[in-house]
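Reagents: none. Just compute today. Otopetrin-2.
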Amino acid sequence: SSQLASFGHQPHQPTSMPASKEVWKKGGRMFSILLAVHLALLACTLVSSGAFEKIAVHDYDVFFRLTVMMLIVIIWIIFYLVGTSRCPDAILCKDSHAGPIWLRGGLILFAIFSLVMDVFKIGYYSSFYSCLSAIKIIYPIVQAIFLVVQTYFLWISAKDCVHVHLNVTRCGLMLTLTTNLAVWMSAVTDESVHKAHSKLKKNMTEDIFRWFLKAGMRSSSAEECNCNSQICQIFKNGYFWLYPFNIEYSLFASAMVYVMWKNVGRFIEHHSHHIQRLKFRLFRRTFFVGIVLGLIILVSGLGVLILYEVQVNSSTESSKKSQALTMYYIFNIVCLGLMSLVCIGGSVIYRFDKRDMDRHKNPTRTLDVALLMGAALGQYAISYYSIVAIVASTPRDTISALNLTYALLMIAQHTFQNIFIIEGLHRQPPKEDHKHDSHQKDLYGLTFVNINAVSLRVPDSGSTLAPSTAAEAIHPSDLVRSLTAPKKMNWRRKFLREISMFLLLSNIILWIMPAFGARPQFDNDTELNFYGDSMWPAIVDICLPFGIFYRMHAVASLLEVYI
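Predicted 3D structure written out:
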């Protein structure tokens, strides 16, 4: 009777376990979300208020608040590494999909350039220490320490599923995420103000420029100090050129921290817990067509970027500016058109792909899809604003027609690429397609096959069948199709790999061009005249960073799916 009683309690265990596993999704998660929302709104208020001179919020107030946040995050990360992660049963499992090697490698690359940027900042602000607040030098020092500590933390802990100190870990991760977003907002604002000042300085004298700064837009406190030495100018120009790397680092780190937050208290299912090994398969089983075309686009884009910077930013002649805009639009139209066509071709190939859809719970994939769709909204907004301005404006010239085509293709390319990548993210890995029935596995290993002999083969189940029945079970024609099926699948995979390599290299150059100064939205007079000098730059400053981030996230997603 005791055995029957103990046996009777067993069915209740599976039903109670899921309820206990889902407790982590409730109170603690909601509290950490509210904490992140309030901190993010406060950071956004300070950063946006500090962008204008008439508001009594200065840049050193923003830097002080960011410094305090980074110091708190550094203390919590040390507590996590020393205390939480070393507790018994702290990390019962790891999420194999979180923090892939190429994402962590990209994070380290951006962190290195961000450290160089902080060194340039320290050197620049140290050149006139007497007329600046001390926080302007303390901030880049603390940011450099924050970069090192956070990068190490994400490298070793990105896959963790923590099961101790749940509420503290959730709040710490949300504080880390909010800090990265606040640093990102500050960097985007500083870069936008710097570019606006550069445009004004090119068309104004020094006295008029300083009067304009006092009238409205924020001038950095460093603008009031003289930077006459050569080394000071090198530091100043250097750290502004490195801002795009710091911006991308903050967004990459935020994405990885969010996945860690989703994995707090999570139990990984057995079928989805597998170890990913880095395999250098970049140039295996490929025709090099996608790589060659992608490299041609990449090199051509670098040439267009250099010519654009020289003719637009270094020359005041309107003819050279028109030539630079025409060259820029033609290159992007060709690039976006090719990318749209290959994305459509990849979606067609998916219609013949026999791989099953992966419907398992995967926070990393959910975040990838959300970021792809959300970041694309920034470029969608700029494109639709441009379309309305071009269609409603008169007269229409060649540059307006090229700009209209560029905006339409930008919308189409983002849409088709999102469909292609998201469909790839939801497919089972290619290696699972090699799983065949037991009789097919035996046949694939044969060099010479006697079709008539194999057609009479007895099934593996051990049941005795007549020769006629066995022949009906495995027909020679079916056997030939089974033998040729992997070859056909390899052709599909090769085409998908070629498409992914071309898209990867094309997205890299489309990230480099706007990130390093090629922004025709500020140089084309159509939108500026239609929306005004205040509204249009604000739209671009808000939306363009999302478009730049979209390109890098598309590269990471393509690496995750195909490479």
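The chain has 21 helices and two strands.
Action item: order primers for follow-up constructs.
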